[in-house]
Amino acid sequence: MSEIIVGIDLGTTNSAIAIVQDGVPRILPKNDQKIIPSVVGYSKQAGWLVGRPALNQYTLDPENTVRSIKRDMGSDRRVSLGGREFTAQEISAFILRELKTIAEENLGQPVTKAVITVPAYFTNAQRQATKEAGEIAGLEVVRIINEPTAAALAYGLDHEDDQMALVYDLGGGTFDVSLVEMTGGVVEVRASHGDTHLGGDDFDELLADYANTAFDKKHQLSLKDNRLAMARLDRAAEAAKVRLSDFPDAHMREEYLAEKNAIPLHLDTKITRIEFEELTKKLLARTTESMQKVLTDSELSIDDLDRVLLVGGSTRMPAVWDLVSDFTKLEPDAEINPDEVVALGAAVQAAIIAGQPVSSILVDVTPYSLGVESATRVGGHIVPDIYSVLIRRNTTIPVTKEQVFSTLHPDQESVQVKVYQGEAPIASVNTLLNEFLIDNLKPASKGQCPTVNIRFDFDVNGMLHVSAADPISGSKKNVSVHATQARLTPSEIAAARDQLNMDMFSEEESDEDGLEIDDNALPEIDDETRALLRRANILLDGGKLTEEQTNKLQELMKKITEADNQSEFDTCSEELLDMLFDLE
Ligand code: AMP
Predict the structure, then answer these.
(1) Please, which pLDDT band fits residue 490 given cuts at 50, 70 and 90?
(2) Catalytic residue among 72, 90, 147, 335
């Protein structure tokens, strides 16, 4: 048997341990939990606590609980716990020893060697302290590797052609962004930038403040000085934040949070995802500055990036995905669980050192996006046939996502829900999976448009369960459909996507009213413009245009496809967009 070397992600908020078995990297869990909180505590009754029990104690007894010790690694600071003084290495060693025990229980044999990850910005002193922590825990640290490098290894980037990846890592307490370069199978961090005091905790804090303001407004009592109540608010805020990643709103309810004149007071407040995103947008803006800085520092531009990897539990927030994809103009990779990816990558490095073969990590993902048809109003016009995606392609399954839609008119009592699979921005160009009617819709108050909550549950068997519900009238409809499901590698997904793009856009569309769209002759036409041309063709096919409209539309399409400079191309595309808005 080859020697066992484990991979460890020793994180600020959470830690995990992984190993490559039969060529496949996997996390070693404790009681089905794949990550443990990086928290150490001491209790008079129970003695030393590590992980979840220590975190549970934090709410009740913060003085005897230590969190985020990673921030002190390499410093001289001592923390006192259980009547003794400890260095940061010694506290970290508690966490490492717990991980070692978890590994030994899973594997049924001793574990003595490890690869441990650290942030790319860690100094030599911090790396040395991490090594010492391992030794105190009884682990020989055979290598210290950078967290972004580990993420790149987990995604198998060392097997791919030379490329540049941006690794965006937003965890519980820290944010890092790194540029990782792959050349000849060697993965190296080229530049790194970050904020050691920005993470999910800051989002929780803003949300807890929001709840406290709502509580104060209702009961004229602020909880700011009530440490225990604030700790409970923090916990409720984190749970609400996690829910808002998949659902359009979240309730924060805490009973008996405080007392006033001997009367118990409860918290009961609601927040929508839109409100939450507004509340926290300044935090995310700081991450954009870091992305810009890391590119400037390394004299690179967005065009030099080939891949973007999302790492850290907080990247599950949809606003992060949107921000990163808008900034980089790339579709980020997020299919490997963002809070496991670093430990899995450390295990890959460990296997390489041990001379074990490693195959790439396979995850079950949705190979295509799933959504519904919607319409919107632009400048008084209704634009129909818009594809609203609920589950993006490459999302790990099983997954549940919910979104609220409102009707176009206040007196509208029914909605036809059309469920599509595909990537085109025009709904009808995608594959229609099913459609159904939900009726008996009621507005929340007179003059308002009724709303419908659409929920998608995609299960491991590839069944998509769609439900539509009106929260006011209680009206509800469900359907289940078979969506295409696959166990695909990232390269298979990319191939499937390219094929889909070709299927959608390269077919010859020639009829007397339409124009032929020839991909090969017009490489500069992007997907957006292709979609515009396709919409124009659909209108021309419909036969409802006047002769003048038909001529104008055909003229614009011709100008776009024959434009010999970018500015003419842009002007005509904009004109076509305006005309489509009017006509549709
Ligand atoms: P990490 O340090 O990578 O384990 O990330 C921990 C942070 O991720 C904590 O602040 C969690 O609240 C946050 N987190 C985990 N899951 C989600 C989620 N689904 N949506 C938003 N934040 C999440």
Answers:
(1) low
(2) 147
Same domain, 110 and 188: yes
Same-domain status, 445 and 342: no
Q: Name the residue with the closest Cα to ligand 1, atom 2.
A: 171
How far is 530 from 516, CA to CA, in rounded Å? 11
Q: Any residues with CB less than 8 A from the CB of 387 and at least 6 apart, and which?
A: 371, 372, 373, 374, 420, 422, 424, 425, 426, 427, 429, 430
Residues 310-319 as b/e (b if ≥16 CB within 10 A, e otherwise) read bbbbbbbbeb
* Number of structural domains found in the chain: 4
Residue to probe by mutation, ligand 1, list 13, 175, 399, most atoms within 8 Å of CB: 13
Spacing, Cα 12 to ligand 1 middle (Å) = 12
Taking the model in full, what pTM does it have?
0.79
Annotation marks residue 9 as catalytic = yes
Contact between 138 and 29 under an 8 Å Cβ cutoff? The reply is no
Q: Which two tokens stand for residue 270?
A: 């609601």
Q: How far is the CA of 505 from the centre of ligand 1 (A)?
A: 39
- The DSSP annotation for 476-533 comes to EEEEEEEPP-EEE-HHHHHHHHHHHHHHHH-S----SSS----TTT-TT--HHHHHHH
70 is catalytic: yes
> 150 with 86, same domain?
yes
Compute, in angstroms, the gap from residue 32 CA to the centroid of ligand 1: 18
Please check whether residue 418 is in contact with residue 432, taking contact to mean a CB–CB distance below 8 angstroms.
Answer: yes
Domain identity same for 252 and 319? no
d(CA 360, CA 266): 50
- Cβ < 6 A, ligand 1 pocket: 11, 13-14, 35, 171-172, 199-201, 238, 241-242, 245, 312-314, 316-317, 339
Rounded to the nearest whole angstrom, what is the distance from the C-alpha of residue 284 to the centroid of ligand 1? 14
Q: Which atom of ligand 1 is nearest to the CA of 12?
A: 2
- The domain that holds 89 is classified in CATH as 3.30.420.40
- In a domain? residue 492: no
Q: Which domain holds residue 222?
A: 200-279
**DSSP state letter for 158:** G
Selection from 486, 398, 412 nearest residue 443 by Cα: 412
531 and 477 inside one domain: no
Are 533 and 432 contained in the same domain?
A: no
Same domain, 311 and 391: no
Options 9, 246, 364, 423, the catalytic residue: 9
Rounded distance from Cα 536 to ligand 1 centre (Å): 44
Q: What is the Å distance from ligand 1's center to 171 Cα? A: 6
CB atoms within 10 A of CB 206: 16
Position in ligand 1 atom list of the atom nearest CA 241: 21
Vertex 279 angle, CA 275 and 283, to 5°: 140
CA-nearest residue for atom 19, ligand 1, is: 242
Is residue 98 among the annotated active site residues?
no
pLDDT tens per residue, range 377-423: 776 677 788 899 999 988 888 899 999 999 988 899 999 999 999 88
CB within 8 Å of 301: residues ≥ 6 apart:
295
Is there a catalytic annotation at residue 503?
A: no
User: Which of 42-51, 438-447, 481-490 is least confident?
Assistant: 481-490
Asked whether the predicted pLDDT for residue 109 surpasses 70, the reply is yes
